[in-house]
Amino acid sequence: MVEANRYRLGLFVLSGIVLGFTILFLIGFSGLFEKKVRFYTLFKESVQGLEVGSPVKYRGVPIGKVKNILIRGGDKLISVEMETPLTSIELSPGDADEAIPAEELFDRFFRQEVKNGLRCRLEFSGITGMKYVEIDYYESNGIPKIPGSALKNIFYLPSTASMWSDLKTSVSDTLAGLGSIDFKGIAADLSAALKATNRLIDDPRINNIISKVDEIGRNVEESSQRINSIVTKERLQDIFEGISKNLSALSNLSAKTTEHIDSTRPGDTAASVRDAARSIVSARESLDDTLHRLNATLSSLSELLTALDENPSAILRGKIKKDALPSDSD
């Protein structure tokens, strides 16, 4: 009786162990019985950090794993084969047709999305340096051709350069552009220009010209001060008043002479006197015109003195119009 109970207990324990291993086996290898689809892509850049078993993600969602990584000897491209379960992407109700196999529906889906810009791209997984394959939509110019020969019975999904690869390309192009600049030639030209400038500055003729210009400026300023001290506004006013008084006296004299001649009328003598009076009137008009011109000349002289007082260098540069803008040479 005791032996029978031991036998039953041992059989029960053994059955439990076998059942546990069977459950673990089914859980661990359940993926072996799941339908999957395989596809591949080609990379021109380094795939360091990408390994067999690395994740494959569709817009950040894990959908499969990397199954194989090969180097093609002909074009030196890196071939990365991937697989994903058919259940990883749920097809729309319009695509779920029982008469069409799931593999064909999956193939149709990928072919259509490639036209819309679906591409494979290498991305970093954290800071460890490991990489994974990201499937997402990027800008594209149509459907690219398959480089070289395509693998049979495996769908080809085009790839695009990673952000790191684009950055390295941009840096390389920038460095190449900087390398093409003739810095030595630029430095030589700059050095020659500085030497020529120094020679020009040290030229005695330039120093002589500068000295003469300074001397002319001092002479102009001294002349302006002398003219201002000789011809003042009060003196000009006195001259104008004296001229006005002389004109008035001459006018009165002419009027009295004409009146006296008209009242006497002594024949020939009167005619001679009238001729003399007319000569006096003509002389008066000529003197009047001369005085007007003198007045204009004095006005111009006054304006000149005022201008020289405000800007002594005007005697070298000439008169500047008020509405003209100053140029760089001024």
Distance between the termini: 131 Å
Count of DSSP strands = 7
Structural shape: rod-shaped
**Residue fraction in strands:** 5-15%
Give the helix tally. Answer: 8
- Which whole number gives the mean pLDDT? 76
Judged by helices, strands and strand pairing, the structural class is alpha/beta
Q: Any overview of this molecule?
A:
With 330 residues, this protein is α/β, with parallel strands linked by helices. Among the domains are: 33-160, no CATH class; 231-317. The protein is built from eight helices and seven strands, in the order H-E-E-E-E-H-E-E-E-H-H-H-H-H-H. Strands 5-6-2-3-4-1-7 form a seven-stranded mixed β-sheet, with helices on one face. A hairpin with a 6-residue loop joins strand 3 (61-71) and strand 4 (78-85). Helix 6 (233-264) packs antiparallel against helix 7 (268-310). The protein is rod-shaped, with a radius of gyration of 56 Å.
Ordered list of secondary-structure elements with their pairings:
Elements: H1 2-28, E1 36-43, E2 55-58, E3 61-71, E4 78-85, H2 102-115, E5 118-124, E6 131-137, E7 155-156, H3 163-179, H4 183-202, H5 204-230, H6 233-264, H7 268-310, H8 314-317
Parallel strand pairs: 1-7, 2-6
Antiparallel strand pairs: 1-4, 2-3, 3-4, 5-6
Helix pairs in contact: 6-7
Quick structural summary:
The protein contains 8 helices and 7 strands. It is α/β, with parallel strands linked by helices and 330 residues long.
Structure keywords:
330 residues, alpha/beta, seven-stranded mixed beta sheet, 7 strands, 56% helix, 14% strand, disordered C terminus
